[in-house]
Amino acid sequence: MIHATVARRGLLALALVALAGFGLLHAADKDESKDKYASDSSKTAKSALQPSLTGKLDTRALARYIDQAIDLRLDAEKVKPSPPADDAEFLRRVYVDLVGHIPSADQAAAFLDSKDPDKRAKLIDSLLASDDYGKHMADVWMNLLVKRDSDNRFVKFEPLTEWLAKNFNENTPWNTMARDLLTAEGDQDANPAVTFFLANNTVDKMTDVTTKDFLAVQLQCAQCHNHPFSDWKQTEYWGMADFFEKVQLTGPKNPNKQDGVPGIEESAGKAGRKPKLPDSAKTVPAKLLGGPEVKLGAREKARPILAKWMTAPENPYFAKAMVNRAWFQLFGRGVVNPVDDIAGVSPPSHPQLFVDLADQFASNGFDLKQLYRAICNTQAYQRTSKPTADNAEADGGLYAHMTVQVMTPEEQFDSIFQVLAPNQDPREMALPRGPQAGAKGAKRQGLTARSAFTAFFEDEDATDPTEFQQGIPQALRLMNGPGLNNAAILNPLVKTGKTPEQIIERLYLITLSRRPTAEEQERLVAYVGQHKSEAHNGYEDVLWALMNSSEFVMNH
After folding, report:
1. Are 332 and 465 a contacting pair, CB within 8 Å?
2. pLDDT band at 174; cut points 50, 70, 90
3. DSSP structure class, residue 287
4. What's the rounded Cα separation, in Å, for the pair 465 and 332?
5. b/e string for 157-183 if b means 16 or more Cβ within 10 A?
6. For the purposes of burial, counting CB atoms within 10 Å of the CB of 299, is it exposed (0-12), middle (13-18) or buried (19 or more)?
7. Are the C-beta atoms of residues 251 and 187 closer than 8 Å to each other?
8. What DSSP line would sit under 108-158, residue for residue?
9. Residue 499, φ and ψ in degrees, nearest 5
10. Is the C-alpha dihedral spanning 440, 442, 447, 451 positive or negative?
């Protein structure tokens, strides 16, 4: 028998999604920001080819240049862009993109009510200055740099997570961060960056991850044969791999059972143990990707030479790789797709813009916050995700409207607990008791509620953030999981003596970062009125339905 509350909630959810404007692509009745953020591309000269840049641009000038490039392509394709997002849509989007969770109800109300004409730019600045920015970026890059498997099951990943968050928050230049990771040595407790190599502890893994994440080159297919879809040869692969063959693990393999601290050293001049290589390995001299061979002395460390070449401003891949990754994070697709294959067969959607953004990134000292700030201040980023009749069929690479993305598991968890436990750090919440605690990977020692949730929701095969991959198990977990249906926040809200209209408005601000439309308000007040004897349950049903709506779990 279906529980009465669940059945009632199911009917409520169906009623909610039928409401005008409630769906995923909600658009406000009145767009107060339209005039300020309307495109001024008509004031600029139109050209079929975007001219290349000369000189270093500040943030505002770079944002204008990005819009000019995108508008020129839209004009050439005769596609009219969607209007700007309303304040609520922009607010929620930029919070999820930059700090990895939705705003609080008070933050949402303050932004929506503000009359400051520069409030969007100021919000972008404040989010980039918050500690949550670095934590969110650490989540993004931990998923790229390390993958849990049987070979690294004893490795503690937390030191690298904290190291990344600290450096992203301090805005350490990206070339410095990459160089520090690539050349890391010492014990893990003294230098957390060595976790990158502890987690990728074979020569082929180091080669694959390094080229894919820092250069956006899919070199792994050339490990055992010449790449069929590019110019990469097997000798190119093992020429790059040679830079890692002196890297050795130090200390215990399992620090839980053995004394000591794990670490990394590069055994220059030592006769250390031979690295474990696959059968396809070739013995070739060290060779920079697409470049010359490097003659290494017997006592010379190899990784500093590789890192110096990789992170140089003139490197043909490094700056482009990070620009493409940032663009992908904010728009749901790269200027080049796939995002980690800029040397593949797919051309950039905006070739000159891609070159110029990479050049600007390098000339600005690989300043990541400046890159994200410029992109977020563009009209392209601030467009609504709702397509129009003029651009509904347009290719996503035109950026006529914002793409709708599925929240990552980390973003989803942190947003859920921004609603349910706004004063707690979701990263430190203990694993709840009950059957759900035994979810995939949840029995590993030290796992938190957050890591158990992300393990259950992660899909390593999902590479397109615009495709919804979650199924029935994930939906049931959200509906019924322990800790995910805690409506304790309703107690003080209901007891304040607020009217039903005020309580429902607050629930919308808490969950969807917007106020309800008049029709939504009318229907939900009527629904709660049907449960006068159990009004708390009526509000609980509304909260439950909002948190399980497509509008909540998507970033739009």
Report:
1. yes
2. very high
3. B
4. 6
5. bebbbebbbebbbebbebbebbbbbbb
6. exposed
7. yes
8. HHHHHH---TTHHHHHHHHHHHSHHHHHHHHHHHHHHH----GGGTT---H
9. -75, 160
10. positive
For 390, the token pair is 């003029």
**pLDDT tens, 41-91?**
333 333 445 666 777 899 999 999 999 999 999 999 999 999 999 999 999
Tokens of 274: 């031979």
Instruction: State the residue for tokens 């890591």.
Output: 451
Mean pLDDT of 157-179: 97
Q: What distance in Å separates the CA atoms of residue 103 and residue 90, rounded to the nearest whole number? A: 11
Strand order in the sheet with 186-187: 186-187, 263-266, 247-250
Residue showing tokens 């044969």: 225
Strand blocks (E) in 367-478? 405-406
Phi, psi of 186 (to 5 degrees): 110, -170
- Whether the Cβ atoms of residue 383 and residue 330 lie closer than 8 Å to each other: no
d(CA 552, CA 415): 9
SS3 per residue for 352-391: HHHHHHHHHHHHCCCCHHHHHHHHHCCCCCCECCCCCCCC
List all residues 6 or more positions away from 166 whose beta carbon is below 8 Å from its beta carbon: 134
Closest C-alpha among 415, 534, 379 to residue 96: 415
Long-range contacts of residues 75-78, Cβ cutoff 8 Å, at least 24 apart:
75/41, 75/46, 76/48, 77/394, 77/398
For the residues of 255-276, what is the DSSP string, one character each?
Answer: TTTSSS--EEEE-TT---PPPP
Which tokens hold the place of 460?
């390593």
Q: Are 100 and 410 in contact (CB under 8 A)?
A: yes
Residue 92 vs residues 79, 112, 505: alpha-carbon distances, Å: 27, 11, 16
Which residues, other chains included, contact 257 with Cβ-Cβ below 8 Å and sequence gap of 6+?
none
3-state helix, strand, coil in the chain (%, to 5): 50, 5, 45
**Are 205 and 248 within 8 A, CB to CB?**
no
| Helix, coil or strand: residue 405 | strand
Report whether 63 contacts 374 (CB < 8 A): yes
Count of helices and strands (H, E) across the chain: 24, 5
Q: What dihedral do alpha carbons 178, 183, 187, 191 form, nearest 10°?
A: -30
pTM for the whole thing? 0.87
Contact criterion met (CB below 8 Å) for 501 and 525: yes
Residue 266, φ and ψ in degrees, nearest 5: -105, 115
Cα dihedral sign for 164, 169, 170, 173? positive
Select from 351, 348, 281, 371 the least CA-distant residue to 97: 371
Work out the number of other CB atoms within 10 angstroms of the CB of residue 326.
22
How confident is the prediction for the chain on average, in pLDDT? 83
Helical (H) or strand (E) element with 183: none
Point out the least confidently predicted range of 116-130, 301-315, 527-541: 527-541
Place of tokens 């349950």: 537
